[in-house]
């Protein structure tokens, strides 16, 4: 069975190797285990990939380059309008050659794919990788994509992060991962070795953009600088705010406390989870923040914003939530962790127990389960031996994805 993936993610060609952002590449590899061929309709640059990219491991993955669009300036928007007929033509050509179509939203190509795909295949599946509920400042195109995916126009399952009330049967609570079971075992060993020592080794992992509120992290650290002698922070990632954040570190006299690691490969990122004991992510909006799930698996205390799926992930004493970008609330939480470290041991244990269920292997099995039930087809790859394990692995706070899968598949057949 030939699968077409429509994605706005930028890909990179280096010789015969195809690269993309690491977590995305590993997830697409999982999809490629289930299909004989996978073609990706997405932007592609013939240049060296950034440090946070990985090569696709599966040989049955190919790229159908799409024109790269986007931007907030009027020139960029005008260019999108001019290129629209060509974008539609390219996607139509790709869809005609596919048996099944997977649309990844939100994004410009995702919007076009959502509109076009129902004309070309009955085997449809979409993934909404952002915050499924509305949030301040979101664009009209993001709202439109959610509206289309919720409607009867989209005749396939839509996987979303988290369980939300009053959703149609085809909206399926789901999860993602980048860690293999072996890496999960490494994380578990690291969690067992952790000792509460009162030191603050703070970690941030992610893009350095305005929406991530890394400035609030630095402001919180500045409030603790004098009171907490054993305080250090590593910022892993890159982005347009990097220069401003480096300047802010100097202004706050945090040069001896804060280190910028830049973009790193995933194996190197795991070393930072080993080192840290607290992860902070106080973004304005989040879908499924992989950094939080990974940090939980390593037994870190996670402090996240009360947006998107984060409150569900950190519920029931698995972590701490604060308002997005609230430096004072973040500083208060960090100070309490440093002052009463042993009181957070139970939180670490609950976090590890929750996160260890979400490996790449579990993702593959859950995808197979979803698509087999909805499409009524037999997919390639390893056979699932125990649906009960998948049901457990797929459970996300406040929802049972596997139950939703069964209900939506039943509704389709009746």
TrEMBL record:
GO molecular function, one term: hexosyltransferase activity
InterPro entries: Glyco_trans_1 (IPR001296), Glycosyltransferase_grp1 (IPR050194)
Domain of life: Bacteria
Region (Disordered): 392-414
Keyword Transferase: yes
Pfam families the record matches: Glycos_transf_1
Alphabetical UniProt keywords: Transferase
Record domain Glycosyl transferase family: where: 195-351
CDD domains referenced in this protein's UniProt entry, alphabetically: GT4_PimA-like
Name of the protein in question: Glycosyltransferase
């Amino acid at each position: 069975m030939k699968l077409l993936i429509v994605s706005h993610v930028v890909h990179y060609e280096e010789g015969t190797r195809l690269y993309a952002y690491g977590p995305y590449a590993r997830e697409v590899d999982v999809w490629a285990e289930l299909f004989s061929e996978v073609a990706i309709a997405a932007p592609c640059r013939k240049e060296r990939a950034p440090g946070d990219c990985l090569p696709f491991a599966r040989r049955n993955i190919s790229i159908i380059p799409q024109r790269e669009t986007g931007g907030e300036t009027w020139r960029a928007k005008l260019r999108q309008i001019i290129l629209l007929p060509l974008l539609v033509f390219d996607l139509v050509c790709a869809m005609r050659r596919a048996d099944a179509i997977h649309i990844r939203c939100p994004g410009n190509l995702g919007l076009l794919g959502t509109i076009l795909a129902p004309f070309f295949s009955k085997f449809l599946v979409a993934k909404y990788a952002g915050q499924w509920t509305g949030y301040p400042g979101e664009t009209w195109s993001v709202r439109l994509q959610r509206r289309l995916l919720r409607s009867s126009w989209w005749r396939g399952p839509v996987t979303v992060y988290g369980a939300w009330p009053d959703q149609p049967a085809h909206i399926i609570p789901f999860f993602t991962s980048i860690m293999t079971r072996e890496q999960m075992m490494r994380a578990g060993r690291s969690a067992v070795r952790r000792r509460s020592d009162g030191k603050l080794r703070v970690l941030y992992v992610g893009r350095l953009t305005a929406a991530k509120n890394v400035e609030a992290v630095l402001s919180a650290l500045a409030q603790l600088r004098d009171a907490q002698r054993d305080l250090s922070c590593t910022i892993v990632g890159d982005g347009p705010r990097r220069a401003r954040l480096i300047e802010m570190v100097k202004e706050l006299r945090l040069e001896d406390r804060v280190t910028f690691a830049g973009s790193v490969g995933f194996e190197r990122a795991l070393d930072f989870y080993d080192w840290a004991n607290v992860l902070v992510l106080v973004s304005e909006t989040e879908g499924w923040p992989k950094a939080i799930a990974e940090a939980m698996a390593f037994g870190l205390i996670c402090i996240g914003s009360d947006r998107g799926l984060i409150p569900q992930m950190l519920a029931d004493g698995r972590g701490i939530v604060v308002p997005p970008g609230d430096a004072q609330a973040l500083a208060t939480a960090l100070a309490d962790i440093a002052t009463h470290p042993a009181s957070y041991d139970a939180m670490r244990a609950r976090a590890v127990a929750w996160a260890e269920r979400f490996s790449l292997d579990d993702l593959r099995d859950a995808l197979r389960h979803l698509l087999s039930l909805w499409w009524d087809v037999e997919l390639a790859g390893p056979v699932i031996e125990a649906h009960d394990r998948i049901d457990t692995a797929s459970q996300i706070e406040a929802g049972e994805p596997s139950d939703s899968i069964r209900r939506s598949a039943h509704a389709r057949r009746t």
